Amino acid sequence: MAQSVATALPKRAVAVDKLGVVIVLIIAAAWLFLPFADFKPNRILPGEPRSIFAALPFVEASILALILAVSIPVTLFRTPTIIRLVLSFVGLGALAIFIGKAGYYLTPEGDKLARIAPGAGFWVFSGAYALLAADALTRMRLGPWPRIAILALVALALGLLLWSGAWNSLSILKEYASRADAFWREGRTHVFLAFGSVIAAIVVGVPLGILCYRHRRLRTVVLNTLNAVQTIPSIALFGLLIAPLGALAAAVPALAALGVSGIGIAPAMLALFIYSLLPVVSNTVVGLVGVPEAANDAARGMGMTDRQRLFSVELPLAFPVILTGIRIVLVQNIGLATIAALIGGGGFGVFVFQGIGQTAMDLVLLGAVPTVALAFASAVVLDAVVEMVSTKEPAND
């Protein structure tokens, strides 16, 4: 009996989670070696590192340290997925709240020049908890609507923190306060460039993809040409478009009156449109090629014309693949639109390049953080939409 109990003990031992080991090492390294916040006498000078207990009052620092300490065993071993998810959101929430507290705590009273920025440790902690949350959500295999709901709740929580003023003493919010009007203006431009170029690519790319599907020789020429264009670096393409668009605006005053010129939104929009064509066209072709022959045979047997078959059978079945290409394009263009600022196209890249020129990293973050957030939110929503459309496909069969 004793022997059987002894042999059973190893099976009851708590298993170590492989990803959890990596996350724990990340948390431990950030705790031991990286600052939680940086104190800067002004927006230009390098920051002075502050650890958790130097950046926060003792009670708040102890609470955060306790959360980090509890995270280690829960993450290291294979614990229930829901516990890991809750812990990740508690960790992210605590970091968001306490970095705001650090901003008020470290700012000298009456000092309007000092800047308090999140330190490397804060960003690494946030990355570790985000990785833990992503792993838990993947294991839970949530459907599209729950994922969108979680995204909405996260956005609501961030909005409440911004509205409450909890982060107002942080350097990035001070940069925003002095550029609020410009931030929203460039934000609208960024959205217009990213989404407008994608819409134009859909309008042109889907019909072009249908033609390529119908005509094999055209498919080879078009896809090879678009593949070649993709090899041109984005900055180079923006630069190449300056001269022809400038000459076109000079030759056709009506186009110049519409805003077409060698610099500005026009070359940026055109370059993003060109980059968007390959994923849209190729995914349209792949989606149509992947339509089961049985579906086409059934449509022919019902007496459908080629046009009816295209719109009633082929395009609906190919739509999930086409939508996947649109998702790729949108996320790509949200990032590429940042470079448009180099040719006067505007967007969040204005703050990124101004910050680089002024060696003001907080200004760089003012442009980079919303760009990343917009790309992430767009990816989550479109991923959910693709899944919704894909899961409906079998029901239509």
Can you give a write-up of this model?
The N and C termini lie far apart (58 Å). The chain has helices at residues 2-12, 18-33, 52-55, 58-76, 81-106, 120-140, 144-164, 171-177, 180-214, 216-230, 234-240, 242-251, 253-257, 265-289, 293-301, 306-336, 349-357, 361-396; strands spanning 37-40, 48-50, 115-118. α8 packs across α18 (361-396), α9 (180-214) runs parallel beside α14 and α17 (349-357) runs antiparallel to α18 (361-396). A three-stranded antiparallel β-sheet has the order 2-1-3. It is mainly α and 397 residues long. The protein folds into two domains: 18-166; 180-389, MetI-like fold (Orthogonal Bundle), CATH 1.10.3720. The model has no long low-confidence stretch (mean pLDDT 89). Helix content is 77%, strand content 3%. It is a multi-pass membrane protein. Pfam families: BPD_transp_1 (PF00528).
